[in-house]
Amino acid sequence: MSRVYNFSAGPSMLPESVLKRAAGEMLEYGTSGQSVMEMSHRSKEYMEIIQAAESLLREVMSIPDNYKVLFLQGGASSQFAMVPLNLMNKSKKADYVLSGQFSTKAYKEACRYGDVKAVASSKEQNFSRIPDIDPVECRSDADYFHICMNNTIYGTVFHKLPETGNVPLVADISSCILSRPIDVTKFGLLYAGAQKNMAPAGLTVVIVREDLIGNAQDITPTMFDYKVHADAGSMYNTPPTYPIYMCKLVLEWIKNDIGGLESMEKINVNKAQILYDYLDSSKLFKGCAEKDSRSIMNVTFVTGDTDLDAEFVKEAAANGFVNIKGHRSVGGMRASIYNAMPTEGIEKLVAFMEDFEKRHV
Ligand SMILES: *Cc1c(COP(=O)(O)O)cnc(C)c1O
Predict the structure, then answer these.
(1) CB 198 within 8 A of CB 217
(2) Distance 351 CA to ligand 1 centre (A)
(3) How many CB atoms lie within 10 A of CB 299?
(4) Rounded to the nearest whole angstrom, what is the distance from the C-alpha of residue 76 to the centroid of ligand 1?
(5) Where in the chain are all domains bearing CATH 3.40.640.10?
(6) Does ligand 1 come within 6 angstroms of the Cβ of 240?
(7) Positions of CATH 3.90.1150.10 in the chain
(8) 260-360 CATH choice from 3.90.1150.10, 3.10.20.30, 3.40.50.2000, 2.30.40.10
(9) Residue 27 Cα, ligand 1 centroid: separation in angstroms?
(10) Which entry of 37, 91, 149, 156 is 20 to 30 Å from 98 by CA?
């Protein structure tokens, strides 16, 4: 068996020790005589799994008691509708920052449910940076203020959070959750599709301050009402049982093997630095994101020649560095280097890039 270094933006790599553990428990979980996949979600064994997943997430992310943790389905994309349906309920206004494709989708979806304003955008720079936010544009009576924290496609991240005063800050953290500590108290709501940094696809995590739920718009489908899921402990209907179990294993890995999110951040910053340092010194490759907006999770770069980019992607794959092609809206390359990508994977990629550069400059 030879496992590749998978730079996919999502679904993406999972820690090898987690996959081995899951493999070991595939046919029989504990002494239950069955796989987690086969269990009733209401069985005693499974209840222990989902409760452990929630308490580990609370511990690892330091989530305060006045926040609910919801394990849902529908992907981050469903949250583009769930957030406005549940939160746009007083002034029916919400402010959005357009920092990429996902935040633009979130904005367009929210426009269906209220008075939604794009208060800042970096579209004209092809989202190569986080836009500056002019406080004059922001509405103090908005029901919430939405950002996409880490822009997966463009490789940019909010290094500083917008000041929103009393307006609850809502963030899509799909591609940066668990990558470093984050002060949950600064947010009204956080959401993430789990397939980037937490678990296999199928699970969506929502962390929401209690006072923000319970006033969904009348048209809200039952399955889209946070209160319904919060009251039922994410068991209103069948939750994505296996991804939740995998999420628990990933959280155990972060807590016990890595040593928590401070340690995770150090590892991730170092990994990204190795790649950015090389890009900044390279005569062939060039980073796409502006320096003060660079993400530590998704690193975008180009050679400036689309044929050469394609050749690089092909050769990289042949050498065990797969899924490194950039998103079609940026072109070039993108190395998604989530938590499970070992430092060795980056070092080997850089060595390969150096060799490719020697042969092409
Ligand atoms: C991947 C991604 C999404 C879309 O997630 P789905 O779970 O596929 O709906 C949304 N936002 C961000 C930041 C992402 O990285």
Answers:
(1) no
(2) 31
(3) 25
(4) 5
(5) 16-257
(6) no
(7) 260-360
(8) 3.90.1150.10
(9) 31
(10) 91
User: In tens digits, what is the pLDDT along the chain, a chain of 361 residues?
Assistant: 789 999 999 999 999 999 999 999 999 999 999 999 999 999 999 999 999 999 999 999 999 999 999 999 999 999 999 999 999 999 999 999 999 999 999 999 999 999 999 999 999 999 999 999 999 999 999 999 999 999 999 999 999 999 999 999 999 999 999 999 999 999 999 999 999 999 999 999 999 999 999 999 999 999 999 999 999 999 999 999 999 999 999 999 999 999 999 999 999 999 999 999 999 999 999 999 999 999 999 999 999 999 999 999 999 999 999 999 999 999 999 999 999 999 999 999 999 999 999 999 8
Phi, psi (rounded to 5 degrees) for 209:
-65, 135
3-state secondary structure of 312: helix
**143, 162 contact by CB (below 8 A):** no
Distance CA 54, CA 70 (A): 8
User: Are 79 and 172 within 8 A, CB to CB?
Assistant: yes
